[in-house]
Amino acid sequence: MKYRRLSKEQLEELHPEFINFLATQSITADEWAEIKANKPEVAEEELDVFSDLVWEGVLTKVKYLENISELQMHLFALTEKEMKLISVKVLNPEIDLRTKIGFDWFKRNFQSDFVEYLTASKAYSEDKNLDKFNLIQQGAVITKGELYQWFENIIDVSPT
User: Fold this and answer.
1) Which Pfam family, any one, appears in the UniProt record (predicted)?
2) Which end of the chain is more exposed for a tag (fewer CB within 10 A), N or C?
């Protein structure tokens, strides 16, 4: 398995897609029930293959990721050739960016000496989607990139 198996809730949500996946392999509902009952290891393999296919599809489309912790934000733009990062560090230990109060403080003070910024970019490894998946495994979530784009307009991250 390349990524990780989808959760039970995710699999339930994708039930129609899973049925189509089984159909592409000419597995009927009755055959699936028999596989689950008599060959659980084969059923597990099918779930793993389906999970990898779903992850591959999702990761191919991902353009932005965010990983926000108490005092830091790591905002990623995932371009065709590289991952761009805007890193924000709050130097006020009383702030928690994950709360409304903390984020409101940040919006008022983002240009103060209590906030540091860093930008970077990194080429992908040979497996671009696995690089994205690893960021998700480390706590990043898929977003539409509004926060990244907001910062991009405020701090100059364009190439020189």
Assistant:
1) DUF6495
2) C
